[in-house]
Amino acid sequence: MDQPTDEVLLDIHRRMVRIRVFETEAGRMAEAGKIPGALHLYVGEEAVAAGVMAHLSDDDWITSTHRGHGHLIAKGGEFDRMFAELFGRATGYCRGKGGSMHISNMDLGMLGANGIVGAGPPIAVGAAFSTKFRNTDRVAVSFFGDGASNEGSFHEAANMAALYKLPAIFVCENNGYGEYTPQANHQAIVDVADRASGYGMPGVIVDGMDAVAVYEAAGAAIERARSGDGPTLLECKTYRFFDHVGVRGMGLSYRTDEELEEWQKRDPIHMFEARLDELGVLSRDDAAKIHEGVLEEVRAGIEFAESSPLPDPETLLEDVYA
Amino acid sequence: MDQPTDEVLLDIHRRMVRIRVFETEAGRMAEAGKIPGALHLYVGEEAVAAGVMAHLSDDDWITSTHRGHGHLIAKGGEFDRMFAELFGRATGYCRGKGGSMHISNMDLGMLGANGIVGAGPPIAVGAAFSTKFRNTDRVAVSFFGDGASNEGSFHEAANMAALYKLPAIFVCENNGYGEYTPQANHQAIVDVADRASGYGMPGVIVDGMDAVAVYEAAGAAIERARSGDGPTLLECKTYRFFDHVGVRGMGLSYRTDEELEEWQKRDPIHMFEARLDELGVLSRDDAAKIHEGVLEEVRAGIEFAESSPLPDPETLLEDVYA
Amino acid sequence: MAEAAQREITYVGAIAEGARTILNEQEGAFIAGEDVAGAGGVFGSYRGLLDEFGSDRIVDTPISEEGIVGLGVGAAATGLRPIIDIMFMDFMGECMDEIANQMAKMRYMFGGSAKLPITVVTMSGAGMNMAAQHSQSLEVWLCHLPGLKVVTPATPYDAKGMLIAAARDDNPVFVVMNKLSLRNQGPVPEEAYEVPIGAAEVVRAGDDLTFVSYSRMVSEAVKAAEALSADGIEAEVIDLKSLQPMDTDTVIESVQKTHRAVVVHEAVRFAGLGGEIAAQIQELAFDDLDAPVARVGAPFSPVPFSSVLEQTYLPNADKIAAEARQLLGM
Amino acid sequence: MAEAAQREITYVGAIAEGARTILNEQEGAFIAGEDVAGAGGVFGSYRGLLDEFGSDRIVDTPISEEGIVGLGVGAAATGLRPIIDIMFMDFMGECMDEIANQMAKMRYMFGGSAKLPITVVTMSGAGMNMAAQHSQSLEVWLCHLPGLKVVTPATPYDAKGMLIAAARDDNPVFVVMNKLSLRNQGPVPEEAYEVPIGAAEVVRAGDDLTFVSYSRMVSEAVKAAEALSADGIEAEVIDLKSLQPMDTDTVIESVQKTHRAVVVHEAVRFAGLGGEIAAQIQELAFDDLDAPVARVGAPFSPVPFSSVLEQTYLPNADKIAAEARQLLGM
Ligand SMILES: Cc1ncc(C[n+]2csc(CCOP(=O)(O)OP(=O)(O)O)c2C)c(N)n1
Ligand SMILES: Cc1ncc(C[n+]2csc(CCOP(=O)(O)OP(=O)(O)O)c2C)c(N)n1
Ligand SMILES: [Mg+2]
Ligand SMILES: [Mg+2]
After folding, report:
1. D212 and D294, same structural domain?
2. C96 at the A interface (CB within 8 A)?
3. Could you write out the DSSP letters of every residue in C219-245?
4. Given a cut of 50, is residue D1 above it in pLDDT?
């Protein structure tokens, strides 16, 4: 795996910023009571989605989690239709039927956020089966959390992917918590990657705050998958800066502010921007401009959503069957 | 772990012979049309049940599988009530309601054969939780197959047992097949024990045809569990001499006769008897006498079953609720 | 008790009180589930219990529903009295084997030798924009399984009393709570009491028709009854409370008086429990009926996210009243 | 077709023929499940298909029901047409999440953008001494889930024709086969044909009462009808064939003629689909009914092992006829 080109670095940066700004504003909207239901934000974990998705095209598939906006954005999701979905509007990606926990876009190869922890990996295995069945070189990436790694569905999916040598990549976003339960209280292991050998696939651990590290490790795993050598379990050590649901970052009772502050020092976007600056790829000023530009896009997305019509009640019974 | 004493060796031998003779005659009865339903026989795998159960008392718990007679016999099950159950009689352990796939005896600490592959491990975790909750030094052993190791329920149970450091032992009876599917077609790994490290527990591989090896490895795992050090995954490499269901051993299409013959050369009872003879613990003649004695017991059991009454139809709705 | 009953607490507080009662009373009782300990339950149902009873008895689990229920089954069969929390009823999909094939059947398969004093607490219902996978009412899956009991508290009083009754019962009992009711206030005695499993209650008397309901829809049926009252129609409202066993007698007695019945639940109407109830009513009170037994339930779609759709989806007082009016030819 | 229809094959052979038809016709079709390839299915449903279509299209899986169904969901959403085999319907407990929360809801949650042409073949029913975990009829779980279709072939003809219809449908369809019917012979055309999803059939005409049934119980209802015929009672027998969608019109039309109905299924009576059917009949034909709609189903217990108990448990022609006689006041 070569070092990422400048173009790739800028691309990764852009994806991360898009996630950060979208999520931050989405959090605001939720706090303002404009987004109903449960909102699981991805802030802090941007390097994972961005580093992986930089390798994928619309023809590659991903499955996501309850914390799914970041994956969709990194896969090319547009702010306007995303916000429209979170706002429950008819113009949303799911016509207002899915909301945050089911946001999806088939054209972008995004097989949905998922309200069921652990439900994604078996579906990704199905998508990988599909691309292999048709002899394409497309892959399927399944994102899931440290908590989800304890669901039996993950186990079954991992075993099947290895058995059939499917072009699947299992990306564990280990943010140290399943809801309010720290990893040490939900599994006796430290590295989820240790589970890989039990399925007969490589397990790789990577710093999930370092977008380049994620990019490189994901690249190797995806390359392996595309060449028919089967799946990889890629564990990205990361952290969520906000609460499990909604925004509040500090003052949570299940983790310390110190812990958060330690992780925030390694903010994936700050670290990446320092690096880009150092490399002369993107100056601080230009980075700031990108944030501003994205913020404008986000605001336009919110405006689109707010001015979009609510679903017609008549559509309730549509989309149940093809 | 010390070497087993002569007494222990004779005890293990007896348990194995009891299983072998019971299963062989049960198979005959099924072929004669006297036992209805599905009968999964344990012949060939006796060393596993015997070697493990030699360490347990009635206060220790086990969960079993669809292939459960051997476990119950080794745990102290009586032939008469076992045959009565297989024959569907009112005098059976389950009053004729369970049959082969649900045969059980709570007084012996046997939490049932189970028709659902993989359902046992979580229940064993519950039993282990129970003994720990009450501060006893009792353990729970869960038997399951290579096929069952691919069920998510096994994964969840193993993770929980390790997390809580429960006195549980996961005994994988790897007989190389799940029904008619060879292991290589259901998992990409060779050793199920490789899964242990993914839960944070030791994984041990043992020759499942060698009763002493099983006895020693199980002893270490049980000792570990009793002293509060948590679970072990113990993989016993074994083979079933009969078909998945019922008896026919040779001429099966999913495995070769040569393969069976190779394994039969390592018949756990023959090997063990050779060793006992060599050690001067039990002569060939005395061994033969034990077989004969057990056969008589088995015949008496069958007679008991055959002369037992069928369940009263009125009992249909009993035992649904306490 | 009259005075104690004046005290009002929330539905979620009543769950905690019921749990506390049982933990104090039964030394084999423990609570296990995702985030029940450190977080006190994601709905707050078990707040404070970890401090009071310690981590041996209030047990956070991994996200492993099948493992959790299996743990409950194994612990119950070996002498403990587990209270298992399945956060959202929708997650039963992850553990239906341990529920349907183990918990419900073990005693029977073992010819009566096993006893399974296990209580499962879970949350049903829509109305919070939680969309298709966090809003379901799947009680019919459970009611169809011999070996299980199923209760559905509609009030804080019942939440506490039925949880206590369930946990004292020697059988597996599902206590299906309703998440939109969590903040509801109601009178709840401080002392321990049971709301008996298997007994329905007439919560509003009336002569003109009978609403048969359970869980949150009871209050919607009462609202519908009040609206009808303005038109001179007096509806009797029955809260079934316990779905399995079901107190059919109370229902039939009412219908024999009113001659008309509307069965109301939030669950999808098709193949919901309402079919069973309606079928029983016409079986047992055919000659008393002046009109077919009507049913109000959710339409045949998953639960949608957007409020406008979700409100269209949900049964409510207006829809119940409209159904009643149609039944009465109004 | 008249001549081809003369050919008789077994129900299990008809499944294989239906599967073969689809595999030849749809290049995205494949079969996945435990022991479907090397063993040809534990019931023989797929015998010969591995040789014919190869291991890319006939796929043995690990014992991982949730993984298998998830594989089907993912493959279907991405353009294939999976036929997923779940050996025994009882094993749905292991995969209800992928069935109920993914397969059934994905299209809806995605606002219609996903299409899930997935067929699930599974076996229901008791009568083979397979006891509590291998004998259930759990179709009501599925029928209650918007997004799924459910069909229940009673004959070899329907087994082939409904499997083909299911696999050609762009929605998830459960084809619930019956294991006691596997060796039944019946006329099956060699060519491809569909038995339409959503259409019931009057399999025996009669004027005195209507038996509404499906799956294996259709033949028991016919036997009961024949027994009643000796007493001068002519029962009409309807095979629903498709439970979701359900052809209520055909049922109502019959009841309007006969004025009496007995709903018959093998599933546990309480909270079974019979409740829905009975409720609908009295809703839609109340004034036509001369007696309450009766129901025959299994009693409220798990399926027992011993023959004497299992036969006591199972609905059959005698019990159906007895229920009919009672309904007729005989
Ligand atoms: C089957 C299931 N069980 C429980 C939940 C409730 N729940 C939602 S998110 C979550 C924690 C998930 O933790 P993890 O997989 O680590 O993802 P993270 O939230 O940390 O990104 C839980 C328990 C659920 N949605 N689905
Ligand atoms: C959940 C479930 N899936 C499938 C089956 C059908 N089945 C019964 S035994 C068996 C094979 C089990 O293989 P293994 O665990 O290796 O045990 P063995 O029979 O080899 O002892 C299968 C697939 C079942 N009973 N339960
Ligand atoms: Mg996490
Ligand atoms: Mg095996």
Report:
1. yes
2. no
3. HHHHHHHHHHHHTT--EEEEE--EEET
4. no
State the pTM of this model. Answer: 0.98
| D192: in domain | no
* Cα separation, C170 vs A135, whole angstroms: 56
Within a 10 A sphere around the Cβ of D205, how many other Cβ atoms?
A: 12
What does the alpha-carbon distance between residue D1 and residue D3 come to, in Å, rounded to a whole number?
5
Q: Which of C161, C187, C213 is the last residue of a domain?
A: C187
Q: Is the CB of A45 under 6 A from ligand 1?
A: no
pLDDT of residue C3: 53
User: Residue D189 C-alpha to ligand 3 middle, in angstroms?
Assistant: 56
Determine the number of helices (DSSP H) and then strands (DSSP E) in chain D: 12, 14
Chains B and D: how many Cβ contacts under 8 Å? 126
Q: Is C92 exposed, middle or buried (0-12, 13-18, 19+ CB in 10 A)?
A: buried
d(CA D121, CA D68): 12
Q: Which residue of C has its CA nearest to B107?
A: C113
Give partners of B (≥3 CB pairs < 8 A): A, C, D
CA distance C66 to B158: 12
Report how far apart the first and last C-alpha atoms of chain B are (Å, whole number): 43
Do C107 and C237 have their domain in common?
Answer: no
Q: Does the CB of A89 have a partner CB in chain B at under 8 Å?
A: no
Residues C165 and C220 in one domain: no
The band of B1, judged by pLDDT with boundaries at 50, 70 and 90, is: low
Residue C243 shares a structural domain with residue C297: yes
Classify residue A188 by its DSSP letter: S
Question: What's the token pair of residue A23?
Answer: 């999520």
Domain range enclosing C312: 201-327
Paired with D123 in beta bridges are D88, D177
Q: For the segment C168-187, what is each residue's pLDDT rounded down to a tens digit?
A: 999 999 999 999 999 999 99
| Number of domains observed in the structure of chain D | 2
Q: Please check whether residues D214 and D134 belong to one and the same domain.
A: no
CA distance A41 to A15: 15
Q: How far apart are the first and last CA of chain D?
A: 44
Residues of D forming the active site: 134
| Gap between the Cα atoms of C213 and C216, Å rounded | 9
Average pLDDT over residues C91-105: 98
A110: its two tokens? 């995004």
What does the pLDDT look like over B244-287, one tens digit per residue? Answer: 999 999 999 999 999 999 999 999 999 999 999 999 999 999 99
> What number is the average pLDDT over the span D178-188?
98
Strand partners, C204: C237
Residue D293 lies in a domain: yes
The CA distance from D208 to B186, in Å, is: 55
Torsion angle, CA of A241/A246/A250/A254, rounded to 10 degrees? -90
Residue D194 lies in a domain: no
Q: Does position C279 have pLDDT exceeding 90, yes or no?
A: yes
Closest CA relative to residue D134, chosen from B98, C139, B23: B98
Q: What angle do CA D33, D38, D43 make, to 5 degrees?
A: 65
In this predicted structure, the answer to whether residue A319 has a pLDDT above a threshold of 50 is yes
> Do D179 and D206 sit in the same domain of this protein?
no
Look at A187 and B155 and tell me if their CB atoms are within 8 Å: no
Domain containing C77 — which CATH number?
3.40.50.970
Is D130 in the same domain as D205? no
Tell me the HSE value of D66 on the side-chain side, using a 13 A CA sphere: 37
The CATH number that applies at residue C313 is: 3.40.50.920
Instruction: Give the C-alpha separation, C182 to D291, whole Å.
Output: 43
Report if residue C273 sits inside a domain: yes
| CA B214 – CA B234 distance, rounded (Å) | 9
What are the structural domains of chain A? 6-305 (3.40.50.970)
Which residue's alpha carbon is at the smallest distance from atom 12 of ligand 1? Answer: A178
